[in-house]
Structure formats: structure tokens, C-alpha cells
Amino acid sequence: MKILAIDFGMKRMGFAVGNTDLRTATPIAPMARQNDRQDILYLQKLVDEYDITKIIIGYPLNMDGTKSDFTSRVEDFARQIKECFAIETEFVDERLTSFEADEMLKEFQQDYKKRKKVLDSVSALVILRSYMESGGAS
User: Fold this and answer.
1) What is the CATH number of the domain that holds 125?
2) Can you tell me the mean pLDDT for 40-54?
3) What pLDDT, in 10s, does the model give residues 90-138?
4) Cβ atoms of residues 61 and 71 within 8 Å
5) Domain span at 7
6) Is the pTM higher than 0.90?
7) What are phi and psi of 114, to 5 degrees?
């Protein structure tokens, strides 16, 4: 199965693609958000290009497990994805993924501005790996 993981943000979306048969996960270039319509068109391009069969979306929760202010915006975007694509869509808890991604990047890039450019896609990678390691992709 080929999976697209999305780290949804108001300014950018980060992406990672994975293959459950090969047990691989790779970040791909993040996208500066424009509007929902343009974002969906871009997702269609990724779905076609990578032959995606499932979409995983980072689900923003507060540290105590309650929904954050941003959760409903992510839920709305997920609804749009489900309406536009005949692809299974699933949420994955994204608590601390940005922190973990930034820690991973610190090893390779000391300049925060340069790290910030790829942070969303590395966060998507963390979300995807978490999903695959939890057995969600079995």
C-alpha cells in the first residue's frame, strides 16, 4: 500500500510518502498553502504521481488529549479530501511531531531558518513512521 502523510498547517503543508510493502517512508517537498481548492488540486497531483491508496493526516490534539482550536480546521480539510478522492483517509495523533522533527533536523542543519523550510515534511514523515510502527499499515 502507498500512503501519503500530511502535516496540515495554515501556511504550509508537509508531506511524506510511504510504501508498506517496502516499509519505506520519505519526506517530499512541502507546499505553501493557497486556498482549499488549490490545495486539493495539488493533493490530486501527489495522489496520481505516487499512486497513493491511503492518506494519513496529522490530528492536532492538546497534550491532555483534548481537541485543540485547530482540530476542527483539520477535520474540515479531511472531509474535503474524502469528498474529492476515493481513498481511505485516517487521522494520526500528531502531538510532539514538530518537536521530534526539529530534533531530527538539528543533527543535519544548525540554521533554524533552513530547518523551518523542511520541518513540515519531516513532521509528516514522523506521523507516517508512527502510523507504520503502530501496525496501522499492516
Assistant:
1) 3.30.420.140
2) 95
3) 998 876 566 565 566 566 555 656 656 666 777 888 889 888 888 765 5
4) yes
5) 2-133
6) no
7) -70, -40
